[in-house]
Amino acid sequence: MSETILEVDLANPLLPGESTVLTLNFNGQVPLLIRRSGRNSKEGVALSMAQWYPKMAEYDYDGWNAEPYLGREFHGVWGDFDVTLKLDKKYVVAASGYIQNPKKVGHGYSDKKGRSKKGKLTWHFVAPNVHDFTWSADPDYIHDIYAGPNNVVLHFFYKNNPKIIDGWKRLQPKTAELMSFYNQAVGEYPYNQYTVAQGGDGGMEYAMMTLITGERTFGSLVGVTAHELAHSWFQHILATNEMKHEWMDEGFTSYISTMAVDKILEKQKTFPIESSYRGYLYLAQSGLEQPQQTNANRYEHNIAYEITAYNKGAVFLGQLGYIIGADKLTTTLKEYYNDFKFKHPTPNDFRRVAERVSGLHLKWYLTDWTQTTNTIDYGIKSVKSNAEGNTSITLERIGLMPMPLEILVNLKDGKKKIYYIPISLMRGEKENPYNIKWSVLKDWPWAFPEYDFIIDENQKEIESIVIDPTMYMADINRNNNEFPASK
Ligand SMILES: [Zn+2]
User: Fold this and answer.
1) Residue 424 DSSP label
2) Residue 6 falls within a domain, yes or no?
3) From ligand 1's centre to the CA of 131, what distance in Å?
4) Do 150 and 216 lie in a common domain?
5) What is the CA radius of gyration of the chain?
6) Which of the ends of the chain has fewer CB neighbours closer than 10 A, N or C?
7) Cβ–Cβ under 8 Å, residues 467 and 397
8) Residues 116 and 228 in one domain
9) Are residues 477 and 334 in the same domain?
């Protein structure tokens, strides 16, 4: 035994292709709720049973993934879970798997009524092809069932607390809409059931279910459910090792759930993931940032871990849409899911899909954005009339990270022009996303700190010049992105 890891020496070595059976008897005591798991949550949920059994460590191309569980990210082995729980009859149980004896347990799993509350009751669940099995139980749970998309059955368990019942009822159709959104944006949910249960602390994703705190405003209830449900795709089905590549789970989940909530709650923001950009820009200038490839458990500051995983991870996708085009990003996400579900993909796997979809080289993007803390900062250095009556513009690259640039020129007569400067590292450029013609200029060799180009107009005709009018490039200092300089 080493910290939380048990090492077992096999009597005989296990050769490739062979199998063995491990049987483990264990006793545990359910503690008062500690972070994710335990009894008597703040909101009075009796049992929040996450991370409650000895788990097999994953063995893969990386060797043994036997990292201690710190109440945060986890990685696991897919398998079929067959779980029998014998509990006092008073409890209603929510769990990862499909109930096998609904007639016997009643409680909304069947319409059986009038059971005695004395003695024990056995609950039998089966969860196929999951890498985790979680359950929760409470004597006062209300259990509702709602029909989700593609015949998926949605289960909701929440305390019989008059203050929250209305919100939890209204959450049910929204959860179905969220699932439809993810089915469309990423790929089809492969299980027949998903459960939202009040329990634990904050919100945490588990296989086929989530435990969330329930005493929330409606917006917060939808927001947390959107986030945890989206994890089904990234943490449970794709299941990147989120201790190593936390941003591919938390970041992609944040990105897609923010887009979903924007649509489902009809917020219709022009820039839904703006707050992710704001978070990242704050961190990039805080002096606390560590490279995104840092192991989730090795950050010096928790805030650096959180912003890097969630915000910078969401910006990774938002900005990739800027680099390869929004439609190509949409296709990339779908192909990525289709190609890598149940395979534990790595950052490189995602990059290769994006490259195949876009036809552009993206190794540089992974290098600068995920392996360093290099920042993006481009500026307009000078704008001058030249002898021919045209205008010479000099741009400068102040940050170390290269990016292709989109330059908007607003003319005094109201006309607009867009110039696009590719970087040679990409070996190509995206399609014009604007509904006006754009001019593709010569590549900016990434090592050069300055870049000059000439536009046909006389300087007197120019109202303003803006680097990246979309704001999807995470430039850490936008003050130098405009001419004339913004006050
Ligand atoms: Zn999350």
Assistant:
1) G
2) no
3) 16
4) yes
5) 26
6) C
7) no
8) yes
9) no
- Residue ending a domain, choose from 353, 371, 389: 371
Strands 209-212 and 203-206: antiparallel
Give tens-digit pLDDT for 422-443: 999 999 999 999 999 999 999 9
205 C-alpha to center of ligand 1: Å?
7
Shared-domain flag, residues 117 and 65: yes
Mean pLDDT computed over 34-59: 94
411 shares a domain with 281: no
Gap from CA of 208 to ligand 1 centroid (Å) = 14
Give the pLDDT score at 283: 98
Q: Report how far ligand 1's centroid is from the alpha carbon of 469 (Å).
A: 30
* Ligand 1 centre distance from Cα of residue 308 (Å): 13
Domain with 225 in it: 38-239
Q: Pairing between strand 378-385 and 209-212?
A: unpaired
Task: Report yes or no on whether pTM surpasses 0.70.
Answer: yes
Q: Is residue 46 part of a domain?
A: yes
Residues 77 and 192 in one domain: yes
Instruction: State which of 371, 403, 435 marks the end of a domain.
Output: 371
* Residues in Cβ contact with 441 at an 8 Å cutoff, skipping those fewer than 6 apart: 419, 420, 421, 422, 453
Query: Mean pLDDT, the chain, as a whole number?
Result: 95
Please give the tally of structural domains in the chain. Answer: 3
Query: What stretches of 67-134 adopt beta strand conformation (E)?
Result: 79-88, 92-95, 98-99, 120-130
pLDDT band at 72 (very low <50, low <70, confident <90, very high): confident
CATH of the domain at 115: 3.30.2010.30
Query: Which segments of 185-235 are extended strands (E)?
Result: 193-198, 203-206, 209-212
pLDDT in tens, 246-277: 999 999 999 999 999 999 998 888 899 999 99
Task: Write out pLDDT tens, residues 102-129.
Answer: 999 998 898 876 566 789 999 999 999 9
How many whole angstroms from 326 Cα to the centroid of ligand 1? 24
How far away, in angstroms, is 247 Cα from ligand 1 center? 10
| Span from the CA of 249 to the centroid of ligand 1 (angstroms) | 7
218-231 helix and 252-264 helix, angle to the nearest 10 degrees:
140
In a domain, 5, yes or no: no
Compute the distance from residue 100 Cα to the ligand 1 centre, in Å: 30
Shared domain check, 321 and 217: no
Give 157 Cα–ligand 1 centroid separation in angstroms: 20
Determine the distance separating the centroid of ligand 1 and the alpha carbon of 443, expressed in angstroms.
38
**How far, in Å, is the centroid of ligand 1 from the Cα of 252?**
9
What are the tens digits of pLDDT across the range 345-376? Answer: 999 999 999 999 999 999 999 999 999 999 99
Does 459 lie in the same domain as 346? Answer: no
CATH number for the domain that contains residue 396: 2.60.40
